[in-house]
Design a protein that fits this description.
In the C-terminal section; belongs to the anthranilate synthase component I family. The chain has 741 residues and is α+β, with helices and mostly antiparallel strands. It has two domains: 223 residues, 3-Layer(aba) Sandwich (Rossmann fold); 489 residues, Anthranilate synthase. 28% of the residues lie in helices and 28% in strands.
Length: 741
């Protein structure tokens, strides 16, 4: 892989008719990759520092109007006063030139006669961005000009008392007896500007390209000496704006060992990242890189079984070990080199065992993004060729993040206010307990050995729509959740209109690049605040708790053996107690081996693979009961709505042949009610089944699923208590007091 990375230039368009010409000049002069945003881009303006961190430099283009008029410059004037840690090299042209000078003490006044399409000789001192330019003729399109307050011709090349930070570099023909300022630089910050139009066909071509090249050379000097891209401002902004982006965050920090060792932030590029969704109710797979229904490709499938070969084909095609000799260079200890990240709903799992849900899908049942760029706890990687510059930058970002401190911000205070005024609806105790009794009746009739019931759904809503819809940051909820309920599998996903905030203790299935598979089902939960560790052991030793775990172990052994064979399946831990921040839980570990594969080889295995084990094991046995198919049919009829993501799985499928997915429990889910023009996302509906304007709740709704396993030894009161314990571990993030934030 090469090391060259083209300049990443942000061009700010003030609705000018020459924008594309300037972009072309940048591309030709410095081979830049140019991104264009307009001055009224509200999303960009709201997250200005965050988005700027993705660029090497900024060019502010020409445009109509007056730099003193906010409507004419949008967010441009904010660029000149950013904190030092966020300052970015800037070249202003025409309006950008006037804005720079106006914001540093100059006056902007009218010319006696507008200069529209006038070609004039530019006088410069041959220094800075004009070094080596020689004689220069340039086109002007302006009716306003900058006055720095020069009164003595002998000091025209020096800053003035009125504008001590602006140093003149070039002048043009006189207006009312005084030359017109044509170029400047800031004396301390990386700001330069020109009044004329370097992109014009009548501006001296070589001179214009030399000016741009000189500017870029000096911009690089600034970046290299100030390491702007390598400071903590990126991650501070990331913490503030993570929820505004489409991302997948899988967090296992602080949980070493077999339960979780690696944290992954998958970056979703809105223009390039492949996103794939599937809905059970229409059996249609949709994929594409650009948002919007009109940009998606669709394929009607016969069943969900056709999805897995498609996923495997994409993963194999992007396996980096296919490059000659590259396999020996890859960090084998890094479990995720890139690949699919997202979730599979409970209902998608039902389709794999031929259980009809009888209800429409409220969200995409399969929702994945193909991640090419990711940030790890220690490692930063990319699947893209010639992407070493990005990798190096992100490596420095992570180093800075480890030492950065979190600060209370206005956004944090808004979050606290919203949470304090939140409303929580829990299921009715009598209704839930009756469902437990109904499950037991099925058990007595011989229909099922173990059944799992959940509540009718718990909604978290607020009475302040304006705060929550516009300002509530789901990533703030994640911070609260993993702080109050730390677990090995924290998650934050914002993808295709669905937001997931979770802290799951349960690994569903993982497999490494050698084909070694592991399940870690949890059955049995005891709240730490109510019981000592000794008492928890006594509870878990009861025949009821042991029966729950044992049945799930045997169920998983069955599922795993169907793929790898009984001789390649074993139980390494049987019913051991594990301690978490708020609960004790009873855990078993079931393992298996697909046909062994050389992890450095690019040749796909010839036998069963991890994705085959995943397909054969859905939905998670710990969330269904046994026999799985009959238990799921019973639960479908008892439960009033789809489970959705709850009881599904969330994680990644690695291009190198590995994978890791957790069970979606201890998790809150919200669905975007509308996007462009107030229309819902394709395949996404409001959680209440209503449009945003017709929801009975004035705010965001977060749905939390919770439940418990029902055996013949269960009591309805005990099952309700267990469900409430699990629910409370998540609700703590929504009911936190100000002091607990």
């Amino acid at each position: 892989m090469g090391s060259y990375s083209p300049p990443r230039i942000l061009f700010i368009d003030a609705f000018d008719s020459f924008t594309n010409n300037v972009v072309g000049l940048l591309e030709k002069s410095i081979q830049a990759e140019v991104t264009v945003v307009r001055i009224n881009d509200q999303k960009f303006a709201a997250s200005l520092e965050f988005f700027l961190s993705a660029f090497d430099a900024v060019v502010i283009g020409p445009g109509p109007g007056n730099p003193a008029n906010p409507e004419d410059v949008g967010f441009i004037n904010r660029l000149w006063s950013l904190p030092d840690t966020s300052t970015v090299p800037i070249l202003g042209i025409c309006l950008g030139h006037q804005s720079l000078c106006l914001n540093h003490g100059a006056k902007v006044t009218r010319l006696s006669e507008p200069r529209h399409g006038i070609v004039s000789k530019i006088t410069h001192n041959g220094t800075d961005i004009f070094e080596g330019v020689g004689e220069l003729s340039a086109t002007q399109y302006h009716s306003l000009h900058v006055d720095l307050g020069h009164s003595n011709p002998d000091i025209f090349w020096s800053p003035t008392t009125a504008c001590p930070s602006i140093c003149p570099l070039a002048w043009g023909p006189e207006d009312n007896g005084n030359p017109v300022l044509m170029g400047v630089r800031h004396t301390e910050k990386p700001f330069w500007s020109v009044q004329f139009h370097p992109e014009s066909i009548c501006t001296h071509k070589e001179g214009a390209q030399r000016i741009v090249s000189n500017w870029w050379w000096r911009a690089q000097e600034w970046n290299n000496s100030h390491t702007r891209d390598f400071n903590g401002s990126f991650m501070n902004a990331l913490r503030l704006h993570l929820d505004e982006l489409e991302v997948v965050l899988l967090d296992s920090q602080g949980h070493k060992g077999e339960r979780g060792t690696f944290s992954i932030l998958g970056m979703v590029d809105p223009k390039e990242t492949l996103k794939v969704t599937y809905k059970v109710d229409d059996r249609c797979i949709r994929w594409g890189t650009n948002p919007g229904a009109n940009n998606l490709s669709k394929l009607q499938l016969d069943s969900i079984d056709q999805i897995w070969p498609l996923f495997q084909k994409v993963l194999d095609a992007h396996d980096p070990r296919g490059y000659d000799g590259f396999g020996q260079m890859l960090p084998m200890e890094v479990p995720f080199w890139g690949g699919f990240a997202g979730y599979i709903s409970y209902e998608a799992g039902l389709e794999t065992i031929q259980v009809d849900t009888h209800r429409p899908s409220e969200i995409p049942d399969v929702n994945f993004a193909f991640i090419q760029r990711s940030i790890g706890l220690v490692y930063v990687q990319s699947l893209r060729d010639d992407d070493s510059a990005w990798v190096a930058e992100m490596g420095q970002v992570i180093q800075r993040l480890e030492g950065s401190e979190a600060h209370t911000t206005g956004e944090d205070l808004i979050l606290r206010h919203a949470i304090r005024h939140a409303q929580v609806r829990k299921p009715e105790e009598t209704e839930y307990r009756q469902k437990v009794l109904d499950c037991q009746e099925f058990l007595r009739s011989g229909d099922s050995t173990l059944s799992k019931t959940l509540s009718s759904g718990q909604d978290h809503e607020t009475n302040s729509r304006s705060i929550l819809v516009e300002r509530l940051r789901p990533v703030g909820l994640l911070t609260l959740l993993i702080t109050g309920n730390p677990a090995p599998f924290g998650s934050f996903l914002h993808l295709n209109g669905v937001t997931v905030v979770g802290s799951s203790p349960e690994r569903f299935l993982s497999w490494d690049r050698t084909g070694h598979c592991q399940f870690r089902p949890i059955k049995g939960t005891v709240k730490k605040s109510d019981f000592t560790r000794k008492e928890a052991y006594e509870i878990f030793g009861s025949s009821k708790e042991q029966a729950e775990n044992l049945m799930i172990v045997d169920l998983i052994r069955h599922d795993l053996s169907s793929v790898v064979g009984a001789n390649n399946t074993w139980v390494s831990k049987l019913m051991v107690v594990e301690e978490y921040a708020t609960v004790y839980q009873l855990v078993s570990v079931i393992e298996g081996q697909c046909i062994p594969n050389n992890p450095t080889s690019s040749k796909p295995p010839t036998g069963p693979r991890g994705l085959d084990v995943l397909r054969a094991s859905l939905p998670p046995g710990s969330m269904t009961g046994a026999p799985k198919k009959r238990s799921c049919e019973i639960l479908r009829d008892l439960e009033p709505r789809n489970r959705g993501i709850y009881s599904g799985v969330l994680g990644y499928l690695d291009v190198g042949g590995g994978g890791d997915l957790s069970v979606v429990i201890r998790t809150a889910v919200s669905v975007d009610t509308a996007t462009d023009g107030g229309k819902p996302h394709e395949g996404v509906h409001n959680e209440a089944g209503l449009g945003a304007d017709h929801s009975p709740f004035a705010g965001d709704i977060y749905r939390i699923g919770a439940g418990g396993a029902v055996t013949i030894q269960s009591t309805d009161e005990g099952e309700f208590t267990e469900m409430d314990v699990k629910l409370s571990s998540v609700l703590g993030a929504f009911t936190a007091t100000e002091g607990g934030m």
